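Researcher: Can you fold this with zinc ion in place?
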Amino acid sequence: MIKSNYHTHTNFCDGKSTAEEMVKSAIEKKFDIFGFSSHSAYPYKSSWHLNPEKHFEYSKEIQRLKEFYKNDIELCLGFESDYFPLICSPDKQRFLEFEPDFIIGSVHFVVNLDEPEKKGFPQEDSDIPVNCFSIDSVTEEVQQGIDLLFDGDGKKASQTYFALVREMVTSFDFDIVGHLDILRKRNNQLKFFDENSQWYKNEIEATAKTIAQSGKIVEINYGGIARGSLMDTYPSVEFLKLLRKLDIPVTINSDAHNFSHIDTGYDLAIKNAITAGFSEIQYFSKGKWHSQKIEV
Ligand SMILES: [Zn+2]
Ligand SMILES: [Zn+2]
């Protein structure tokens, strides 16, 4: 079975390792295909995104590594592009000049568009407006964001998150939907929603249906495990079952920020795919997507 990953961060954005350290580790851990996906809010900047001026440097470095290690591993260039209404979007058109192999579209910022005057959490060293918070951030930021932007209403914050995901999926041209239910990351501590409530089930079902119509691929992201934030994949097995029912293709991604984390959780991702009923997963190679049977 081809071992692949398309979601990796390096010290070009908020990762801890260099791209080359990641490649060496990927070879050691027997990945066949390994992709990079620096955080990009292009053309805006923030402390955890690739600086807009460094997009070419980053792309050139990945192209250099692609060539240098071509006999050992197939490398791919990508971006994890944020969706922030009217600010930045995961649209291939925006990234053409960098010639990426793929784009991951992710919602990190939750924005209350109904009440734009409300302040969320200050985004340091950033062009991003303040009426937001990052759902993927530390517990304090998520709590403050829900309190200030949504008057403490976790249901409203969650529904806003999923509405943004659906809007992103239908509006833009990209390949992989990133960490679909990342809002679970801080729910262990904050308990701002209940995954078993009917409204939550309605949200994930509506989101799955929207993705099915778009033809996009969903990642099974195991990045929470190595970082100790969630000992499970995004999305959950329950969400994966909905995706399976609608024949939505999936791929497996690490979201590693450190070379020692690149396959921590890979086996659980395969296990969750099987539990949800998947027998095939997708991988990208030589310019296009392929399907393969899961073998364990
Ligand atoms: Zn992300
Ligand atoms: Zn990521």
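Model: Folded with zinc ion in place. The two ends are 9 Å apart (CA to CA).
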